[in-house]
Amino acid sequence: MYGWRGKRIRFDLTKGKWEVEETPYEYRRKWLGGRGYNSEVLYNEVGPDVDPFSPNNLAMLGVGPLSGTFGPSTGRVTVTAKSPLTGGFGDSNMGGHWGAELKFAGYEQIILKGKAPKPSYIWIDDDKIEIRDASHIWGKFPRDADRIIKEELGDKDIHIVTIGPAGENLVRFACTFNDCYRAAGRTGHGAVIGSKNIKAIAVRGTGGVKIADPEKFYQITSDWRKTMRTDPMAQGLYAYGSLVLIMPCNYEMGWFPWKNLKYGYHPDARNISGEVWAKKHLKGKEGCFSCAIVCGIHSEIRDGKYAGEYTGGPEYEACVPTGPRVGIIDSNECLHGAVLTNNYGMDAIEAGASISWAMECWEKGYLTAKDTGGLELNWGDAEVVDKLLRMMAYREGFGDILAEGPTIAAKKLGVGEDCLVSTRGMSLPGDDPRGLGFGYGLSFAVGTRGGCDHLRSLCCLELSGYLYPGLNEKIVGTEACSKPLVTDGKAKMVWWEEHHKAFVDCLQVCCFNTHWSYGCRNEHLIPMLNAVTGLDFTEEECLTIGERIYNLERAYWSRQLSGKNDDVVPRRFTHEPMPENPAASSGKVLPIDEMLPDYYKLRQYEPETGFPGDKRLRELGLAYVAEELKPYREKYIAREKQKKAKKKDKE
Amino acid sequence: MSQQKVIMINADQCCGCRVCEMACSLYQEKECSPSLSRIRVVRNEAVGDSFPIGCALCTKAVCVEVCPTGANQIDPATGTGVIIEEKCVGCRACVRACPFGAAGISYKTGKAYKCNLCNGDPQCVLHCPTNCLEYAPVELTVRHRRRALADDVIAKLKGE
């Protein structure tokens, strides 16, 4: 077998047992790997009634056919579980080297079910598997757990997935790490792994990946790697990491997430720009497995109160949530926040969003010292942010309610709905679509894992107009959509990017190669896949796989009666024009209604419910899903009717 | 001797991406596997330090000295490693003796492998994204390094 190793491990943690299962050819061809495998298993095995913290939820880690090869950044892993944050479909992926190591050990996927009777970690040493006691590392920060396990197993070259204290304490947005700092941030699967009493998964793989046509694979990949040396986006990322975004984001486009994304601009944003960071905080570069870009950085604090602290990263999305989003613009304080979220093992985005939501509520008078246990939640108070991060991770005092995430917290406290910047229960990252682009805005509304979702479509085509001219013409059929703040062609762009991203996530290569920079396009990627696997994938087939996965994930939500009603963006973007600023976003709102209908048509969703269309599901080989959705459609329609009636009654 | 090229390491540039391992194993062994790579990266994730280790092209190579069958050789013309596969019995003598951990036995063939500089175009160097690896004449490179260091020290002494 070429490309794949063709095996996965199913753990029954309650019984302390596992089984190694083969993935047959038809399965591999239909679901490809990584995200595809995980989504397929989650849909089939974790139904709408399963509580995310119940032993019947699954936590899965998957890699794909290109993982652990010479291809573009092939160390990525998708982590999937039913999300404790949103109650719906949840996944996210991380870089590092663990994914490649799993492949070298001989597997594409790990499925965790049940709950270990006591804190444990898993040790996969090629074909030798063991569940070991983890009581001595329970409570440790990921990087300390990593060190202790390596010492214990007597090998510092192994790679380890870990969770932090937040995962153990069931913080609903706890994340999963590997190689100490590489986080699969979103949707809270760290807490699902914690709920299963699993602290870590250590892997040593001494095997390899067989390549069907090594000469051809080598040739294509070599040629592509040479082009990456001169790719403009790749060069920026190499020089400054993703903090390279700060300057254009703030000064040109105006989507700097200042104060819970209320504003899009701050005059001192350059304090945390990649350019300044490189001089002030950069400790060194760190590359994920087989990377051609190397955006990864390590940072340290050299002066002031937090001097001596360091961490891997932060990248843009890990830097801004506990920085500008909560009104902090000092780079030491931003970095301190990132150090803490990494140590505690929390999704920086959701953690920052929780705090910024609370701060906005405080400002508006919705929350008082009575609610917060005496804390004053003023914008920009780094002391308070420091305290709250700890209180969330250990679920102390007011932190206990913030650890539920802002959406649940708002519901429980009955305040601050208008301060939420989230969709489907998950907060948006530091990307304001009023400046970043309307395509991004559309993908926030429809993304299959809730509010993230700049990473469902990663709609960089709309930013690519001047860097990669001609690309949109080819993909969307028009160059009119090459600018961010227009609606032309955006529905098609998002639709296409969603398929493409799902396909890329199955291969588990890094989207900074395939989306952010368009250095690695399908004309490279698909020949690579064919050379590795010896098969004959076409672009059409690959995009169909992406569409199949996308629809399955959407059906997961449908089964929970979440459809058209949830395809909305926060009011902030549609009803509050961007406050005046010197950048492009000034005065803009997101015209979501101009894009949604076209998007629905392209997706062939049912116009009334927003469920995946019956016909399209069958065409995609998902007849069983089409059948299963029927009763849920009835329920959805009945519920919406009831809602309407209630609304009328009130009027 | 002044022209002899080896793989030089710019020690502070390694980012630990291990592209070198992939390029090597794929080019040399037609498979992607660190276990088949002639160059390996030692990583320390917690603090973000990495360092590549490969064949040093020893002048008096211990792997050659200890080989009981004469399979492990240095090509006198190029100064690079050669394994005569027919002679190799997979005894691991070279692996056990190499002080750099740069020799290995292929799990595919059961025979020893060692760096041969890809016939003058080392693929690990070609694909290193940070230019940590450099295929360059030893003598000239250390001259450059000495000069760079000296320039730096002199500048500091002069208070520039």
UniProtKB/TrEMBL annotation, chain B:
Origin superkingdom: Bacteria
GO molecular function: 4 iron, 4 sulfur cluster binding; metal ion binding
PROSITE patterns given in the database record: 4FE4S_FER_1, 4FE4S_FER_2
Membrane among keywords: no
Name the record gives this protein: 4Fe-4S ferredoxin-type domain-containing protein
Originating organism: Candidatus Schekmanbacteria bacterium GWA2_38_11
Sorted UniProt keywords: 4Fe-4S, Electron transport, Iron, Iron-sulfur, Metal-binding, Transport
InterPro entries the record matches: 4Fe4S_Fe-S-bd, 4Fe4S_Fe_S_CS, RnfB_subfamily
Span of domain 4Fe-4S ferredoxin-type: 5-24, 44-77, 79-108
